[in-house]
Batch of 4 targets.
Target 1
Amino acid sequence: MKILVCISNVPDTTSKINFTDDDTKFDTNGVQFVINPNDEFGLTRAMWFKEKQGATVHVATVGEATTEPTIRKALAIGADEAIRVNAAPTDGYFVAQQLAEVIKSGGYDLIIAGRESIDYNGGMVPGMIAAMLDMNFVNTCISLEIEGENATAVREIDGGKEKIATSLPLIIGGQKGLVEESDLRIPNMRGIMMARQKKLNVVEAVGGTQATKDVKFERPAPKGAVKLVDSANIDELVNLLHNEAKVI
Amino acid sequence: MSVLVYTETEKGKFKKNAFEVASYANAVAQQLGTTVTAIAFGADNAEELGTYGVSKVLNVAEASLSDFNARAFALSIAQAVSSEEAKVVLLSSSTDSKFLAGILAGKLSAGYAPNVVAAPETTEPFIVKRTAFSNKGFAHTQIDTDIKIVGVSNNAFGVVENPTSADVAAFSPQINESDFSTKSVEVDKVVGKATIADADIVVSGGRGLKGPENWGLIEELAEVLGAATACSKPVSDLGWRPHSEHVGQTGKPVASNLYIAIGISGAIQHLAGVSASKVKVVINTDPEAPFFKAADYGIVGDAFEVVPELTEKLKEFKAQNA
């Protein structure tokens, strides 16, 4: 089985978000970039398929050279080979087109992407690839088993979960649940050394169009001070929620 | 040309988000000087959408399309887009709508803006405001394609009545057997309980509750309020509560009217995930907990004393206001 894990290079979850250039660009100053958490759960599940079922695991990202430390980390975690499409990931539609090309030429059986990236929260790339390549697709995937050509997936739904039977080739939008937080791997020295020897293929973007652009950003309005209620006066909280906030 | 909205149903009845997304569609249609057509799958009372300004409903009655299937539904909606010559397509932010949004956008070569919180700022060019950076910011996104898909955030635009009479027409999309190659085998869903996605009130617990055996506190408070229960990331990582209850940046987003955080310190990732909630209450022993900076109301105190009392007071309140 040949697996491709699609990776986004995103600000660490603890990052403070600021904008620059008259609020038209995300300010990367002082920001630590990491593998998108939803993708990392998928990558870790791919490692399981590699170790238990002999799968080959490639990772791909659409990004400029500055994203290479993130890709190297994926290799250090254990991916066999990496592909970087050398272009700025301008929007979901452009990224999906680029990844669809990588998938077509690579002959992959299983594509693992994240449910969404935690920066632009588009959540559209795996679905778009599924449409472009007419592949089976399961989103918000929290469990995945493969047996031969058959796949059993569980997806999260509002208020529960749904078990789905499908077959390869398949693309999933993964998230926590595919593996647990405690299963995530921190690359060790040997992994990091080995990653330096692994192939990182840089390919140029093939055409592709942008469907959307973020013309301006905005930070949330500052929050007013909290109203503290004495723990001996809980009636007051009920009163405030009813008469002031009008939420009960 | 019209505006097309996908209105979700659950066992034949419209979900609450269907009325909100229909209300949003009506606002877009007024800006564009056109009308709203809805597509629904097996709606019992399709004409109900007229209340929210929908003038035509394409109701799909095929038995094969009675249960949600992302690809089959996306292809059906794409066919409705073409028969209605729709230029703007509205979806909700439910898990199902987000599942089919990418497929639909791919099939229509359409730009898609998710998590949109307000009616378009302008329609030429078409610009919408949406949350980004996991609620740590907003983006004003311009959609440049001929067909535009907008995913409307939960509980942001609101439900707006705009009564008109809706003509209901049967709609029969052409879907092949091969389009059902992902099959639902089993659905495991809580019934009769509010879900985080559509609850007006969410009660959430953190590590301050000390162990899963104490979750009765959260559940009793939630029951009085008709609220959904949720938890912080550490609680779900420790296995005290299922993943499906984890709210925050890598869990579910919350956009309720009221969010009550109990024993949750308020890590930046958690605050991002719940920031779309309109009113936030925090109960924590530590007055320095970051959540106090993000909350509207707070009580510094021990959850094991404060929460049972709050539950009792709310019971009295509900009894008086019933």
Target 2
Amino acid sequence: MNPILSIAKRELRASFTSVTAYIVIALFLLIAGGLFWLEIFNAASTELSMRTFFTRAPFFLAFFAPAISMGLLAEEQRSKTLELLMTLPVTDMQVVIGKFLAALTLLAIVLGATLPYPISLASIGNLDWGPIIGGYVGLLFLGSAYLAVGVLVSSLTRDQMVAILVSFFCCFLLNTFGELASHTEGTVAEVLRFISTSGHFENVSRGVIDTRDLLYYFTIVLLSLSGASIVLSRRRW
Amino acid sequence: MSKAETTIEVRDLTKYYGDFQALRGISFDVHRGEIVGFLGPNGAGKSTTMKILTCYMAATTGTAKVMNIDVTTDSIAVRARIGYLPESVPLYDQMVVFDYLDHLAELRGVPSSKREAAVTHAVEVCGLGPVVAKKIDELSKGYRQRVGLAQALVHSPDVLILDEPTSGLDPNQIIDIRELIRSIGKEKTVLLSTHILQEIEVLCDRVILINGGTVVADGNFDELYAAHPAAERNLEKLFRLLTASNAPTPVAPKAAAPVDASKYLPPESNAAPSTESSES
Amino acid sequence: MTTELQTQRNRVAKTGLGNGLFLLILAGVAVMLNLVSTDLYGRLDLTGDHRFTLAPASKKLVSDLKSPVEVKVFLSSELPPPYDSIQRELSDLLSEFAANGDGNFRFTIVDPGASEEDKAKAANYGIRPVTVGEQSSEALSVREVFMGLAIVYQKPSGDVQEVIPQVFPGMNYEYELTRRIRKISSEAKVPTVGFVIGDGSFFDTIISEAAKQGGAEGQDPAAAVKTQLAGQLKSQLFDDLFSVEWVTLDQPVADTIDGLVLLGPTKDLGAAGAKNLDAFVMKGKGVAIFQSPYRTNTPDIGVIPGMPKFTVPEENKTGLEGIIESYGVTLNKDTLIDRKSPQVSVVEKVVAYMGNEPLKASVPTLDPRLPLMTNINRKSLLVPNVNLLAFMPADRATPLPISSLSRTAAASAAQTAGTLNITEVISSAETTVRRNNAMGLSVEDATEEKPDEVAGPFPVIVTIEGKLASSVGNGSTDKARLVIASNGDFISNVFNRNDPLADPRTLRGMPPALGQSVQEYRESAVNFLKNATEWLVSDADLIAIRGRGAVAYIDGSRLDSSKKFTMQAFNIVGIPILFSLAGLVAWQLRKGRRAALAARFKKAA
């Protein structure tokens, strides 16, 4: 089997062996579900969509993604398994990608666990699936960006707590660049708005998949993962 | 011995950690069917050399070849032919022993059809049968060491590099492991480092003694004792003779021996041939 | 040694440099790609109605342009949410237009904040800054921003322009742009809406009341009022995209009229009126009839001068009910009552006696006679921006019953046959019941349950489309288009100075669940009138664009509280529990596997 898949498989299996992971995921589902479902029947006439869920999701992800990514490389360094991993016939980039894919799969599974939401909604009205699909695709892309940043941060430290805190910080920063942009002017604002994840997510969650947004997420993932791979290879000197 | 195929070839290896020079030009060969003891005081450069050979690190200058493949130019091919047990045994605590070995066999390129047999073989030769279904964090120190050894040989590599393979084992286990290494050494190449001199005597065909980053002695026991009659055919004495801090070091003119290496090391790296880290 | 040290340092530096350079090049390439992609991109519209893709009608419009169209957007940059989405949505849409325009469609987006020149240009088009609130870290500040656009059609004979002074998020930009470009680029005249007067309708009342105030010397005050009112309707209701004319039905309706609106008629049409209206429908043109089966009457007793007049409810016989019936919809003479979620009305009540004189006062009261119209058919094109309708009677002292509509047997048959389509647009809430012939029902009467009541919901506004035979035996049409509402007050109230909704006493008494502002009730009513009229006079292509982007709402009629609860319970608690259970199962499986593994090696050993 491809070493990337092998590493991803091991990592994923490790996640689903841990009781902590189940608790964190169950809590995430409880909170996300509660916020969405307690609110939706309250107003006199509520839009039949998952708009409120998708509006809040980037904020949730900024918490949840670092929790997934924190241990990926930091824990390998702490337990010295990284030394072994780096002497196996596997390139540094394969290690990084394998870890990243495991985290992304975990995220996809958790997001998949919220699929009963739109199915329930479809049972009570004429649901437009387009924005729903767009929303989920958007969340996966946004999650990829957050996770890739998390992998990079995780490669820089052997302390999981440091990793999660720094990743939080980075994700929130990425999320709030858009807000910052409204306080500045000109090119700086344009650049900030472009770097911000929120604007790109909004577009996808409307139900429009745009190559510009995909390219943006792809860029973040590529740069972060390359960065992580370089950090690992620096260890060899 | 020189007739046998050369499996490890090291030439003029030097290595700096920052400003600290850990290797000062090391050269040696190891051949198939040899068990070579890698000896030296802490900080002499044993672990560093091993890390270079296993492609964990790059040398500053010099070349190293394993199975005639250069470690820098084709590192992935080298890694596929090596089994490595680092000084601190690298284990995933939450994994079941069998799964751990299976995972490493997979990463080392054992095809899936042969993997189960390979893992079973490793389990049997390392005596892991009773704990094969246990989580690694439930294991005693001896078993952990054996699991580490099992992962190094699960893919039956041409070259086995073992950094203190018997540390933490009880006498029975030590004897078992030595048996194991001896039987592997008949067909493969084993390079092992240890501080137990007696182990070298019973296990190794040859000794490479390094000190201060240079090879101070290389040969089988007869050759060594012949060259250093002062050692009186005693390995311990030979060791003292060649590695005591006031002893002359042939290749290292400006060696100011006891340097605190740790302050030059990158903080994440446990690759330190540091004076504290070795015994564990 | 030093050379080796040097080598190491160089090497570290070189790899560092190499890595840095690699990342830099990678970042550079990525930025370049991203920059290139701002102009070169593809998109996949997943929405059910492809609302983010140009409609065929819009594509055809811009590709058939004879002279260039230039759209000048004056949009301040860095707008705070929710306005921040406008920039991209507009520029995406305009790019799509441009891509289909064969060079005849150009657009610019400028931020007039930067230069006085641009500000002056914007002002020239009548685009003025609007104030938006902006939440900064500390305080809520307000800011003047530009959010308007001008469309200039560069005809050889000179420029023609259309201006949208202020766009807003959620606006159907494509519809607004397409219909304006159509208006200025085509030679065809704008559609004309005829409002019927002389039928005792709401407009008659306004015109006659205003005329009583008198006008300038030598002018016909009624004519002046009519001109002014038509102008207001044209500009404020229809953004000058339709013209408005007054129509009387005593003579055939002119061919220039594209649609008719009858808002609360109370006088008999007569045979000629009925014939003229029917002939108009048979031409395939649209008619909206807002008529209640009841009306108020102030009988002229005329015996004792100076005695206060009183008002009584009576049946409203205009002759229209017969025409509607022949088209397939019965205007039921019934009363809808909602005891479970009554609205508040201000009822005239006797509060005390002064000697023998009853002393009356207006008291806010929970009134079951005012059902909420909560069932809005979101598939209808008439309601994309209609959220809340309440049918408040215009005359508080003599509130007329709210009645229902129903299909005739013939219409049901035609609907099954597929020749006629009667669509329920707005219906009352599930909690309404229907009582027959209860014209003068008091609040007290309505509060009591009666055995002959039937449970709702009941339609109050429907549309009729398809094949219709003349009600007077005068041919037939395949393209009939009618809007029938059992009440007109909910619209006329908005224009009325004595709007009961605007009465603060009504406001105060509103149940919190319906806490939406009065503004929303009024907006919904006005939007409904706008949509209905547009539907009557526009062609199908434009209507299709109009309907896109309509959001689906949760269909209340299919949800009872137990279903709601089950859904909430499953999705909030059920999913995490199932997830944890899956974990337990996986744990058991792992245990089993480990046991099997142990057994296997035990045997082997």
Target 3
Amino acid sequence: MFNVKKEINERIGLDAIVSLARKKMVPMHRHSAWYYMGGLLLFLCMIQGLTGIMLLFYYKPSAETAYQSIAEIMVNVPYGWLIRSVHHWASNLMIVAAFVHFFSTFFVKAYRRPREITWLTGMALLVVVLFLGYTGYTLPFDERAFFALNVGTDMPGAIPVVGKYMLEFLRGGENVGPQTLNRFFALHVGLLPAALLLIVGVHLLLVQLLGMSVPVSILKKAEAEKKEIPAKPMFPHLLWHDVINCLLLLGLVVTLAVIMPSELGLEIDYLKPAPEGVKPDWFFLWVYQILKWLPTFIAGIEGEVVGIVGLAIAACIIALAPFIDRRSQRGELSPAFTILGIVSLLVFVICTLIGYFS
Amino acid sequence: MKKICVLSLIGMLLFIGLLARYVCAAEPAAPAPAATIATEEVKDAASEADQKVSLAQVEKSRVVTGDRLYGLAGLWLLIALVIFLIRYQIRDDEKLYQEGYYSKDLE
């Protein structure tokens, strides 16, 4: 009888891969739960890819047709409302998961040698995921998207020297118009997913090559007690747990999509003035809130410019943490960077909440 | 393991069914090209307006119906069943691991 498994094995040596996977161990300690975040993020990426392709079947990317095609998807296409809502909620959860993964990695100092490049690719992934969320938010081209485009593209416009060019590049002109939608569509379905695939590939390869990082505190404790850190095989132990988490996440995404389907705002009226208190999507609210608090001028420089430059410097410090945090590199506890992480997390959460409710 | 595969297959078949329904939906016919006679132009514009999906229709499509909740309950049931079986599988794997099976090379 024809044995599919045997035939495939003869050609690509599947057993060798399985044998290798069985030998790959994952350390088990009180922070092990954070290891699952990467898997969840990857699963959400897969949902986004699949539902995104499905939406492309009916979405018409032009200023005249985009809004109506989304309305068609919601009303006339079978399960269109579900596919769009799953895409919407999975995107929001993907951003949440990316932030949780980022902060957990930062707190356990998983960026220590030899994982500096893994950290940098992770930071790049966070940026790509944020921009995927933002560009996707604008594609329905409704009133909400129109004002979000205005507010969002204004922010890079405040960057000194290159700001003007960035603004024109993003808007396709001086003002937000039909041409802006084409640019955002190209970014959302072309450039950003390609960048995401490439960076995810490198990130996963590095994770497989270097294995999981163990927090300094756990290493020190094991060293003091002269005990080995317990470990379990990645295959099938971690894989099965990953499958359980992904199934629960799938249930959560579909539940949110059914209970709170994705909305569609009013059609764009270019002549209508922007309403009071226009806000960006929730994941950029913290930036918006910080910039709102700043005075118009600080030491003769525009407040917005100072804010953008300050935030960019803060982001650079965090991105370069593996090269600045010398204590962690020496395998010592580094409370300064833990405090930096706590402050960053508090600023992010508090500013987002204030921005949302104000 | 076989039970998990069977349940996953059921889940996948349901998803493929949904996918087929979604992908095979007929798109609304595009409005006819602009006519040269003024009366027909008016007619075209009117039928185009009729074909447009209104915001009220979109809002109606967002209502949580009984059918949707039944579907959701079905999905959670399938997920719970698969997780239940995976837990068993993990227990078996744990036993094999304790016996040193996973440290052996495959022949």
Target 4
Amino acid sequence: MSDVTPGGDQGSALTPPEGAATFEVVEVKKGMFGVQGSGDTSGYGGLVTPVAMPAASPRPYGSWFDQVVDVLAEVLADGARVGGPTYDQAVEKVVVDLHGADTPDARQVELTLHVAREHLVAVCQALRDDQDLRFELSLGVSGVHYPHDAGKELHAVYHLTSVTHSRRLRLEVAAPDEDPHIPSTTSVYPANDWHERETFDFFGIVFDGHPALTRIEMPDDWVGHPQRKDYPLGGIPVEYKGATVPPPDTRRSY
Amino acid sequence: MSAPTTAPHATRAAGNEDMSSTVRAFEAYGDGDWDDIAREAIGEERIVVNMGPQHPSTHGVLRLMLEIDGETVTEARAGIGYLHTGIEKNMEFRTWTQGTTFCTRMDYVAPLFQEAAYCLAVEKLLGITDDVPERASVIRVLMMELNRIASHLVCVGTGGNEMGATTVMTIGFTAREEILRLFEAVTGLRMNHAYIRPGGVAVDTPEGFTTQAREALKKVRGYLKQLGDLMLANPIFKARLTDVGVLNLSGCMALAITGPVLRSTGLPYDVRKDNPYCGYETYDFDVPTSKGADCYDRVVLRIEECYQSLKIIEQALERLDRTEGEPVMVADKKIAWPAQLAVGGDGQGNSLEHIKKIMGTSMEALIHHFKLVTEGFRVPVGQAWQTVEHPRGELGVHVVSDGGTRPYRAHFRDPSFNNLQATSVMCEGGQVADVVVAVASLDPVLGGVDR
């Protein structure tokens, strides 16, 4: 990044940082303070920063990760004979986050499986039911909005725990903004009921097959999904009993 | 059912004239048993009672929608969202360090657990999990275990109060007061501490703290014994709680219920043992379980957990004495908060020595201080998940960074939020009075539920 000059050649700056093979650019930020269209008084206007998420990890993953992925592939292969998805169809990539550890056996290392949304329920079922996987506890769903990740703007992240084997695993599913549908996992993990409602409420991800997908935190008639990146923090006029209450920053001051 | 009166009154005059047609009235005649006559007049009536959101026994602003048949609850649903303040969204607009001031306000009865879980998650992203000094981890453990006792005391105390046992509440809160005084001595505040920071803790414990803590804990132990004596063998208490709000192991697993409710089914699942953090694997303590899976067993477990916490605290205090004077923040000056807090003539603030140094001798140190405090540190791109054993169950934090100085996303999996899903399973088929007991045994804190 050292060769970037203010307002200089931005094309060359798009090359991902060191260890390019292990990162995937999802967004490119320009400047330091997000101000556009004014004279560059800060000197940071030409700064181009690619936001690169960790990309697929190569085999072997280390620790128990290989074993779990292998068993999942086996279980899915069995299911594929009766119409289920194969491992290659269901799992798009496997990411191992080392979080600064030297070895994958360290406690802070995490495993993420990126799953194709149409095969999510089959993967969850396999992860929960097979005795060598047994991720019986689902600790909920959280959404993330990546507005610059074209075609995969909305992510739902599932946090699974195996009490039996004392393991933790993350599933990540992506859906485009135009078609924000992800199948509901409540048939496998009933606990995800409220968590999916929350993610729908805040991100607008529609969980198909959910028993009662309604807003849970925001009022039922609320417009918009507050945790999305295009939704402002505050500044929303609120209608209350027929009157419209303007946002605090536009109210008349005395 | 009395017949509607025809005399004009305020609300009638204020509404439309035709209101009498929308108010249902019943007339009952005949002789015999009143129940039979009433049933004949009313027919199959669905009665839905809204309990809350402003009800003293709902631990804040929980709304329970109960469909009742006489005294029996046939359907129970929980309505939440009355305390939603958008803390997670706000965190995306503040630096990583300022995040602790937000998440501490989620579950305000157990604020230090949110702080600890959030900081552990941020430390994972920073890759400094192994660099946090031992003394900082010991203080974190100590504060969390003190907070666990305080939280359980509120649960047992308010639970008792809701059943009419006011003494349980007064003893519980008196004991909690001792712990809040300790919090005040260490963090300066009784709640909303923002004490645990990414990389360590904000400030070292004050002089003479371990002595003060040992004195206070002696009293807490006494109060815990009083509470146990008052409740656990009390026939009225047992009659109200035994076999009420039963939820078995498979129910708990399906609904992802953790904490004392799960352990009351006999499964010794505790994150402190299963996936230790802050060095919990080096402390000697037990995970109490029982088999009853009812509200009574959950009270027994909570009191027993308080004793186990006292055991951990004693070990932590010994380690505090041993590590006296060691650092409480990571050594990396690009992450560590530049100043240690100190009490001055005008209250708590940056230590005077630090101010002297940056204002008088080192321009670089001043710039560094300014940049770190206003802009904050950058966190590498990625996502992390960290769980801790919260008094109410497993608290999870999911943080995502885009490489900037603010969280790209911070999500809290609050145990109260998840556990409230069990309301219908635990209440349906029971009496209305049992709803209060069952909800109290889940111990929801609505600040955490709604965030």
